[in-house]
Amino acid sequence: MTTYATMTIDELESLRIALYQEYDAFVAKGLSLNMARGKPSVAQLELARPMLDVVNAQTDVSAYTAVDVFNYGALDGIPEAKQLMASIMEVPSEDVIVMGNSSLNIMYDTIARAMTHGILGSTPWSKLEAVKFLCPIPGYDRHFAICEHFGIEMINVPMHDDGPDMDMIERLVAADDSIKGIWCVPKYANPTGICYSDDVIMRMGALTPAASDFRIFWDNAYAVHHLDSAHPVAVMSIREACKAAGHEDLWYMFASTSKVSFAGGGIAVVASSAANIADIKKNMFFQTIGHDKINQLRHVVFFKNLDGINAHMTAHAAILAPKFEIVLEIFENNLASAGIGEWTSPRGGYFISFDGMPGTAKRIVSLAKAAGVTLTGAGATYPYGEDPEDRNIRIAPSYPPLDELAQACELFTLCVKIASVEKLLTSHSE
Fold first, then answer.
1. pLDDT given at position 229
2. Prior bond to 397 cis, omega within 30?
3. What is the pLDDT averaged over residues 350-376?
4. pLDDT tops 90 at residue 428
């Protein structure tokens, strides 16, 4: 098939008419499908339903922990839950604090704490003239939303196939003490699925920031979320990279079981150096007497250990992998030869990153919405919701059933074609 870019105006106009006939047929179906967020599907959540039965009135709690899970105490979590989550994050359990059900909440609190009280005695960020964060793009919209909420200036950092542009990062953090952090999703990154290379992580740990309170915000959200459990991707430990460079306090790591057990009923953790953990606990003393230890125990009893987690995630992969496969197959069949889009083929995580022709993403999302398919908003993967090229769209295959997902992807690729033809026709007329 001839690529769209090589078509004449007459050919493009004929194609536009034919594509709109297909589009009208989709509109007539009255679809109502949602691919806006990376929500676990009903089938995935059902995998964890037996967890609701493992702790009850007859449970001998002492068989699992010496902590009285029904009373106050254990500010940093029961030891068994700390160990379970430490095994996922590949850090010592003493580096871990188990909190509530949301790692996003912990990340927000970490920024809020730095704003009001600083980090390890530094000047509270709210008292500084400027606070900036480095944001690898495309990236996670919730990270960017936290910064925007607190008035933190965001600086775009391009992503390469092995992680963010380290040359740029090294140069910026060394020269500007108002740069206080960087957001990182090092494994199966949101939305690209990229995994950071050893070289990138070693350079990250060896950063020499001008700001003593600069921190790497290492969101390890997809640590065990492999699509092929037989061939998982291994990513170097940021803890070890920082330790090797003599920068033990440079990192915070966040994770949760929100996409392992229950999306609204998991357990979430922060890990860091001894000094950072002590600093966090000092502030937590005024915030809470302890989090939900019964839920922590429930996870311990159900999963037992890392082997239990991995077995459970293999069952998740059996549900998720076919969904990613069908998206990628439809993209390949419908778009590859037309030369109007590029996309990632992740080995894990929850998303596929799609790049259309510059200037088409908003139009694609709008067309899909009008035909009954809700996508993540164009620009959401960039700070302030502003994609400078208007081309990136995050695809979230996890939630819809396979048949609905296939319909949604057929419509999506049709919208890509229409938006591309319109863009090319506009270019010809200018």
1. 87
2. no
3. 97
4. no
Measure the CA–CA gap between 430 and 428, rounded to whole angstroms: 6
Q: How many CB atoms lie within 10 A of CB 231?
A: 8
For the stretch 3-9, contacts whose Cβ atoms lie closer than 8 Å and that sit 24 or more positions apart, written own/partner, are 3/337, 3/338, 3/339, 3/340, 4/338, 4/339, 4/340, 4/417, 4/420, 4/421, 4/424, 5/339, 5/340, 5/424, 7/424, 9/425, 9/428
Helix, strand, or coil here: 178? coil
Measure the CA–CA gap between 60 and 46, rounded to whole angstroms: 25
Chain centroid to CA 384: how far?
A: 17
Contacts of 223 (CB under 8 A, 6+ apart): 88, 89, 90, 187, 255
The pLDDT, as a whole number, for residue 172 is 98
Strands 179-184, 215-219: parallel, antiparallel or unpaired by DSSP? parallel
Contact (Cβ atoms closer than 8 angstroms) between residue 222 and residue 187: yes
pTM for the model stands at 0.96
Q: What is the pLDDT of residues 48-81, one digit of tens each?
A: 999 999 999 999 999 999 999 999 999 999 999 9
Burial degree of 248 (CB within 10 A; 0-12, 13-18, 19+): middle
